[in-house]
Design goal:
By secondary structure, this protein is an alpha/beta fold. It has ten helices and 20 strands. It is globular.
Length: about 350
């Protein structure tokens, strides 16, 4: 085992360092992983640029990264379902307590949950990392490490579509064609949505959406009015969508989502924006439009692995840039500039393949 554990550590707002840390030892219920592929998420960039997201404030140095896959190199004394050499996808959220949320199957809502790269918990953008073995999922031979890392954003799409009630024949509007809008699109189509329309400011992103199965793409401009856009969506679809999945967090987009959705439909808020947002609440209320939120995901990894292994979904086109771990700073700059879609960091010096 190489004795270095190169890690990408955020010390404070704007202070990103690449440093060597000791290789950790797995506890009884943990596995030591040699990390292979870790995607950069918008939240990683946000912590780097702002030092906090909402109530989660960086107070001490923290290893970034939570979209990850790696190889087991050592197992804890109580671990029976994994062995060295196994390739795994890592679910970053591990409940610490068997509280009411855990018992209800909504462990993502547990206030004491551990979550990679959410202060104060360290992430896995490093060479070696220990994680609870029950939240490491074995990858089938036909699923790559990069696909394994993409299960994390894919999980957001699965949880979003489940919460929104996407099913056979659903008509869906997706606001925003970034990584989360695109995984929501992929999952909505796999779950049987008959028509999906997706909006974005950037035509390139909508081009990728088309490639991934979007039936209609609508390029929007910042000055477009919410009601005007809602009308355009109806004209393109031929009717108002039953479900809108809002992935931007932008106030005007949330307004569009509410106006656009048919009476009795569902608006699902995935994107996180300003804490206080002005929306046409009465319009939604009198039309019985349900407004639902999501916080991360739960119980999604087995479904995601089955979808990838069966070929029902294809996430490979999402990866547009790759960097070795040593070039983490360039990778973060690339993501922050909005270039491409998903930037992947390769953590294993001897294996830079997908």
């Amino acid at each position: 085992m190489a004795e270095e554990n190169l890690s990408v550590v955020l010390y404070a707002k704007g202070d990103l360092r690449i440093e060597n840390r000791p290789i950790p030892e797995p506890g009884p219920n943990e596995v030591l992983l040699q990390m292979h592929s870790v995607g950069i998420c918008g939240s990683d960039v946000h912590y780097w640029q702002h030092g906090q997201i909402g109530d989660f404030v960086l107070k001490k140095p923290m290893v970034l990264g939570h979209e990850a896959a790696g190889r087991v190199v050592k197992v804890g004394s109580a671990v029976t379902h994994l062995k060295p050499g196994d390739r795994v996808a890592i679910e970053p959220g591990v409940p610490r307590d068997m509280d009411e949320f855990f018992k209800r199957g909504q462990y993502n809502l547990s206030p004491t949950i551990f979550f990679c790269a959410t202060p104060p918990d360290d992430g896995n953008l490093c060479r070696y990392y220990t994680h609870n073995a029950n939240f490491c999922y074995k990858l089938p031979d036909n699923v790559t490490f990069e696909e394994g890392a993409l299960i994390e954003p894919l999980s957001v799409g699965i949880h979003a579509c489940r919460r929104a009630g996407v099913t056979l024949g659903s008509t869906v509007l997706i606001c925003g064609a970034g990584p989360i809008g695109l995984v929501s699109l992929i999952v909505a189509k796999a779950m049987g949505a008959s028509k999906v329309i997706i909006t974005d400011l950037f035509a390139e992103r909508l081009g990728v959406a088309k490639e991934l199965g979007a039936d209609f793409q609508l390029t929007v401009k910042k000055e477009d009015g919410a009601q005007q856009l809602a009308k355009k969506v109806k004209e393109i679809l031929g009717a108002q969508p039953q479900i809108t999945i809002e992935c931007t967090g932008v106030e005007s987009c949330i307004q569009t989502a509410l106006y656009a959705t048919c009476s009795g439909g569902v608006v699902l808020l995935v994107g996180l924006g300003a804490e206080m947002t002005t929306v046409p609440l009465v319009n939604a209320a009198v039309r019985e439009v349900d407004i639902r939120g999501v916080f991360r995901y739960c119980n999604t990894y087995p479904m995601a692995i089955a979808m990838l292994s069966s070929g029902k979904v294809n996430v490979k086109p999402l990866v547009t840039h790759r960097f070795p771990l040593e070039q983490a700073r360039q990778a973060f700059e690339t993501t922050s500039q909005g270039l491409g879609i998903k930037v992947m960091l390769k953590c294993d010096k001897n294996d830079q393949n997908p």
